[in-house]
């Protein structure tokens, strides 16, 4: 049984169009796995397939268990998800939205337990979303909504955290705050936890991810063009082939990680 998250022959089509073509990859626990690639490559499609939100061929397993065999509550105990856009029922406060992250852990119709309250409090504090938790989500800013969505995913306390562009609406200080919490979160249970994070900023991906998966579109659907450490994946040749432009890749003396500049 393989620990972590494994995709085998994952194929997704929208109507007649194949978007992901037989992707196979093993994502090991204890690591932040960055999913990168150009717009339209299929990153969100991959994430949605893993979450069981869209139909796919092939298999997705967590700790050796097929996700297809799980009902939504079971799946939510294994995987927590931050979508690109956080939606919430009208008039829900931030706190109520985060409490929704606990549904898979509660018995049906039960009130929030003290463990639920603790998890919600901790997630709100960690993300800073406690500052607007009493206000309706609909009346908060895009960045605040994104942080509330992250808090909901963390409150779920699932070992696999899947974040689709979690910093797209954030200023640089909040970008840092979010990316800096990933490794400490993993380190609480490194044998079981892992993060999959979709990022467009390749320098931040190099700095905060242990491994990168570079997804590129192909004639018959996207393929994994490269998978490995940031040093393996962020090469001038691979990035030129993926994005169609020249880039400068150099090690930052400040962060000691690769910095990628589009030319
Ligand atoms: N519901 C859908 N129906 C049909 N085609 C879709 C659907 N959702 C996505 N696509 C197409 O599938 C391809 C992959 O889209 P996807 O959103 O997965 O890409 P992405 O890599 O996440 O892009 P981005 O970086 O722009 O968010 C795109 O060509 C997109 O137009």
Automatic annotation (TrEMBL):
Keywords: ATP-binding, Nucleotide-binding, Translocase, Transport. It holds the Pfam family ABC_tran. Signal peptide: none annotated. One of its GO terms (molecular function) is ATP hydrolysis activity. Residues 5-242 form the ABC transporter domain. PANTHER family: HEMIN IMPORT ATP-BINDING PROTEIN HMUV. This is ABC transporter domain-containing protein. It comes from Brooklawnia propionicigenes. The lineage of its organism: Bacteria, Bacillati, Actinomycetota, Actinomycetes, Propionibacteriales.
């Amino acid at each position: 049984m393989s620990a972590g998250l494994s995709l085998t022959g994952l194929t997704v089509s929208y109507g007649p169009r194949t978007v992901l073509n037989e992707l196979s990859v093993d994502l090991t626990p204890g690591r932040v796995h960055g999913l990168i690639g150009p717009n339209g490559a299929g990153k969100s499609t991959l994430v949605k397939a893993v979450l069981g939100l869209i139909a796919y061929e092939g298999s997705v397993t967590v700790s050796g268990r097929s996700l297809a065999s799980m009902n939504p509550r079971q799946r939510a105990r294994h995987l927590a998800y931050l979508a690109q856009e956080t939606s919430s029922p009208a008039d829900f406060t931030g706190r109520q939205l985060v409490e929704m992250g606990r549904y898979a852990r509660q018995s049906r119709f039960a009130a929030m337990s003290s463990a639920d309250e603790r998890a919600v409090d901790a997630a709100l504090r960690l993300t800073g979303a406690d500052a607007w938790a009493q206000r309706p989500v609909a009346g908060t800013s895009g960045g605040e909504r994104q942080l509330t969505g992250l808090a909901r995913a963390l409150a779920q306390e699932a070992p696999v955290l899947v974040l689709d562009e979690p910093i797209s609406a954030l200023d640089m200080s909040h970008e840092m705050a979010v990316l800096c919490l990933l490794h400490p979160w993993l380190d609480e249970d490194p044998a079981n936890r892992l993060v999959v994070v979709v990022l467009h900023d390749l320098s931040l991906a190099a700095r905060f991810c242990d491994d990168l998966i570079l997804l590129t579109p192909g004639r018959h659907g996207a393929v994994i063009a490269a998978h490995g450490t940031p040093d393996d994946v962020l090469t001038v040749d691979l990035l030129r082939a993926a994005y169609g432009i020249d880039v400068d890749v150099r090690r930052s003396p400040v962060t000691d990680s690769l910095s990628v500049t589009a030319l």
